[in-house]
Amino acid sequence: MRLASFKIGQKRAAGLVIGQPATRIADLTDILAGQTDLIPVIENPEKFSLVSSINEHNFKGEIFDLASVGLLPPIARPGKIICLAGNYTEHISESGYKAPQDNSVFTQQLFLKPSTSLIGCGAVIELGSQNVRVGWETELAVVIGKGGRNIPASSALEHVFGYTVLNDISERGLNSQVPNRHRREMDEFCDWLAGKWFDGFAPCGPWIVTSDEVKHPHELTIRFFLNGEERQHGSTLDMIFDIPSQIEYISSIMTLEAGDIISTGTPAGAGVGDKRTTLADGDELVSEIERIGKLINTVRYVN
Can you tell me the distance from the alpha carbon of 253 to that of 56, in angstroms, rounded to the nearest whole number? Predict the structure, then answer.
C-alpha cells in the first residue's frame, strides 16, 4: 500500500495511491473524519485496516489523477527526523574521513533535522545568500508506526510502518565566507550540523510504502541523478548499521513515536560540496529507491 499527502487547489488531504504504475490517488478525508495527514492511519490499526481494504470499485470518495495533485511530504510535521551520518563505508571515505576497519569498535552518529526542512516530491529547493556549497544525499527513510523506548533489535522491524525516500540536502560551506571570523573549537562541526537545517533541505516522498510490501529493506538499490546523470548507485545491503540496530540504539536514547522518520544514511556519490557536486540554479534532482519510488525536485536560487 502506498500512502501520500497531497494538495489540490486549496485542499490538503491524505491519500491512497492507486495503480501500477501509480496514476490515481483516493482522497481519504471522509474515512479519516476530516483529518488531513496520515498519522491516524499510522497509529490506529482500525483505520489502517479500513484504508487497506479500499479499491477503486468499492471506494465512494473522490479519486484524482495523480498528475493533477501536488504531492506533499508524506508526514507533514513528524515529531522527529533522525538521521544517520556515515552509515556507508565508501561515503565516510569520500567525505574525507578514515573508514572503520572490519574489527573496529565504533558507534552510530546521529543528528536531527527540523520538520520545517521537509518538502514534497515536485517541490523546489530554494537556495539563498548563505548557500555556497550545497550537496545531496539520497537515503532510505523509515517511518515509525508503533512507538516505544528501549526497543530490542530482535523486534525492531515490528515498529516500522513503512518506507519512503529522503534527500538529505546539506550546505557544506556555511559561514565559510564570513570575513575575519574568529573560529572557535567546535565551529566546523556546528556549521556542518546547521548546514542541514535550512528550509527545504529534506525533500521526502513521493509516498510511504507500507512495510508489508518491502519484505527485505536491506536489499534495495539506491540511485541519484543530477540533470539526468547518475551520481549515486548503491544498495541498502551496504549499511554499516542495519535498520533494527538503528531503532534499538535510537530508542535507547529517545522515545520513538508514530510518524517519526529515521533517515538511514547515504551510499557513495553524495554531493560533498566541491565544484562538481555543488547544486546550481535550475538543477533537477531525482532520488530513486527500488520498490519505493522516485523523489524529484528542482533547485532555484532566490536572493
Answer: 43
